[in-house]
């Protein structure tokens, strides 16, 4: 099932085309929205929330039309915007409770949930402080708290680690994982930080120049053509190299005792052939895994770099 879709969606700001004829389906789970600055990531999130009037095409979020049902979508979705969104003079608990009421919660329920989510996000002891006195890390966490206060089934997280130091980034990403994984909560995480997306997401969608450049499971995008494998031996063996080549394999590289091998078959079939070659060469296999590229390499390929 898809949590969001678009069909030939085009969004313009005056004469500038921010999204151009985009057709996509965003699956359930945690999906990373990747792209350089100006790629159209934030515009796509705004379109999903019904804030923009498309020049052409259509879209849905949780089965609701983005043009006809914007208000209902915003009540059922949690948004963590890139920019600070607190209201000066309000305490944290007052602000988060207010966000819950905006989503349609009764005031007493919103206040109770505000206390719960602030505790969950590590802000329990600071809940009665004015938000403008918060540090950058605390402001990021309160943005997450107000996004989840009403129990949405979909979160839109726009640069959730923006401005955080390494420790703060890890804490925020761990919070996102705890909110989404195994709890029936879906998320679209917009970021230009690939390690952050890889830490919390299973799928990615790459945007550039207002167009979709690539999409799919991260593990599939990182897979190398031909399914090569890396084999680590206890020690280097020229005889092993000869044996695998005699079996019809291509030896792509050999560095010390690690061999990258490509065979005309699936990795499971390659494993059996590798073990036979090692046995024939009297070599001991210490490690075997399917070789893959980094997400950054897959991302750059999607951008044409």
UniProtKB/TrEMBL annotation:
Record domain ABC transporter: where: 4-234
Family annotation (SMART domains): AAA
Name of a matching Pfam family: ABC_tran
Family: Belongs to the ABC transporter superfamily.
PROSITE patterns according to UniProt: ABC_TRANSPORTER_2
Keywords assigned: ATP-binding, Nucleotide-binding, Transport
Protein name per its UniProtKB record: ABC transporter ATP-binding protein
Domain of life: Bacteria
Spans traversing the lipid bilayer: none
Organism, as annotated: Fimbriimonas ginsengisoli
GO molecular function: ATP binding; ATP hydrolysis activity
